[in-house]
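PROTEIN FOLDING TASK:
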Amino acid sequence: MQMTETPAGARAWAAVLAVTLGIFALMTSELLPVGLLTPVGRDLGVADGTAGLMLTVPGLVAAVSAPLITVLAAGADRRLLLVCLVGLVAVANLACAAATHFAVMLLARVVIGVGVGGFWAIAGGLAVRLVPPRHVGRATAVVFGGVSTASVLGVPAGTSIGDLTGWRTGFAAVGVLGLLALAGLLALVPKLPSQGTIGFGDLGLLLRENAAVRLGVLITVLVVGGHFTAYTFVRPVLHAVGVEDGLVGALLMAYGVAGVAGNFAAGARSARHLRTTLLQICVAIGAVTAVLALAEPGPAGGTGLLIVWGLAYGGVSVCLQNWMLKAAPATTESASSLLVAAFNLSIALGALGGGAVADHAGLSGALAVTALLLLAAAALIGVARTPRLSTPPTAPDRR
């Protein structure tokens, strides 16, 4: 099979950054309703719990589309596939900005889910084809930094735009960001012909026979699902502790800055102390949400707790990705698709479950559930063995 020449130097890192921008744009698209939940629900005539479907729907769709696109589009040029997926999401965000009915909003969110799941699953294994071998680890960290940075920086920025000029402008801005990412992929990423095929059987075999991969999926469900059980409703939570509506965007931006710091700190530390880093993250998020559920910290205390929450959650994506790469080092695309499926399914289930709990037991109930799930994840990690790079692959990609 004819292969393209691996780019070198600045061109290689420009390609990595273009892929990172694509992931940043798509994950910001998926998570933007977190910051704009209340105004969207108010304008489109739905309650906060129902408005949470804006996260549930794309999360479920992304969980299905990640392995589906990985298998069905296995023969497609990866660059062309990424361009099509990010373009699809850009258009869907513009449709969200123009939506006058909640059903239209949800339909556009379905399209976003397709793009997010497929893009993330494919992009996760591209670093090895974009940079020389000695830089693959760093490039992978940069690419997946787009995931954590979206939740801790992209969403606050979109929220601030929405607060200043209306929620429709927030969605439109993310749509424009997607178009910029599309242009970057076209200009900076080389052609990346398919290297072979992956079957559904490969994914199932990897999940069945690799215990470390199974454990990574379970940890993902507990940590990400638990986080979004409460974080979906962070805006109402901030209102409940006395934060004024006009300050929410600024506080989420502070959460974002803390999260970026947490991403880099966890990325560096998890290379040597992966299990300990994940354990500390789970304990921190569990403790913060427990305090918010049981106490009345007030605006100042609530702000401090939010920043600690952001610092801890900023390291989740890079730690989970490192876990899966160590668990299945020779089957990165298969392992990435399973991680993406679990991650997005957890977002959906967390938002759905959090909405149900919030509607019946209030925000403190959702926060308490988050604390319990994160402490359960901490207990699981505490007795688990860290996967090692020497773990033999049991379901090799057919290349």
Notes: The radius of gyration is 20 Å. Residues 1-7, 389-399 have pLDDT under 50 and may be disordered. The CA atoms of residues 127 and 139 lie 6 Å apart.
